[in-house]
Amino acid sequence: MRDYQGLCWHIVFRLVGNPDDARDLCQETFLRVHGRLHQFRFECPLKAWIGRIAYSIALRHLERRRAARTVYLHDEGEGQREGGNYAIADESDLEGAAGDAQHAARLREAVQALPAVPRTLVVLYHLEELPISEIATITGMSEGTIKSHLFRARSSLRDWLRRRGVSEP
User: Fold this and answer.
1) Which of 35, 46, 55, 132 is most solvent-facing, going by the fewest CB within 10 Å?
2) Does residue 3 have a pLDDT over 80?
3) Residue environment code for 32-53, b if the CB has 16+ CB neighbours within 10 A, otherwise e
4) Rounded mean pLDDT of the chain?
5) Does residue 140 register a pLDDT over 60?
6) Where are the alpha helices (DSSP H) in the chain?
7) DSSP 8-state code for residue 43
8) What DSSP string describes 99-141?
9) Is the dihedral of CA 132, 137, 138, 139 positive or negative?
10) Residue 99 to residues 19, 21, 87, 158, Cα–Cα distance (Å)
C-alpha cells in the first residue's frame, strides 16, 4: 500500500477533485485490491493493476455523482459546484519546472481547469511519469487515444496560460 498510495491519490484526486472523496475512494481501492489480490494474474505490472482499479472506482464515483446531481439540479437551482482548487504537496515537481511560485500556481490552476480524464492523463504521464502503455492498461484507452488526449491537453494548457499572460517555462 505504501508503494502505490501516491499513484492511487493522483488518479483518484485528479478525477474527483475533492480531497475527502479522494481519501474515501483510495481506501476503497486498497480494500478492493486486498479482497481481489487472488485474482491478480501477473499479466501486467501490479502498479498498473492497482491503477486500473483506482481509475474504475473514481469513474464510477463520478457517474454516481453526475446522476445524483442531475436529480437534485431542479431542486437546488444551479446545483453544487464541483471540484475546486486544492493545494496538494505532490505538486512540487510542477513548481520546480515552472521556476517560480506564481507561475506554478497558475500552472496548477490550468491543470485543474482541464476536464477530468485529460487532467488525469496529464498527471499520470507528467507527474507519475508512467509510460503510455501503462496508462493504457490503467485506463483501458488505446495508446493513440491517450496520445491524442495528451496533445490536446498540453495545447489547452498553453492557450490557457497565454490568455492569462503567463509565458511558457
Assistant:
1) 35
2) yes
3) ebeeeeeeeeeebeebbbbbbb
4) 77
5) yes
6) 5-16, 19-36, 46-76, 92-98, 101-113, 116-122, 132-139, 143-163
7) S
8) SSHHHHHHHHHHHHHS-HHHHHHHIIIIIS---HHHHHHHH--
9) positive
10) 26, 31, 17, 16
Closest among 119, 54, 55 to 86, alpha carbons compared: 119
In single-letter form, the type of residue at position 100 comes to D
Please tell me what DSSP assigns to residue 82. P
Contact 117, 16 (CB under 8 A): no
For the chain, the domains span: 5-163
pLDDT digits (tens, 9 = 90+) for 21-35: 999 999 999 999 999
Q: What is the DSSP letter of 24?
A: H
Q: Grid coordinates in use for 105? A: 500556481
Burial environment of residue 119 by CB neighbours within 10 A (0 to 12, 13 to 18, 19 or more): buried
Angle between helix 132-139 and helix 143-163 axes, rounded to 10 deg: 100
CB 118 within 8 A of CB 149: yes
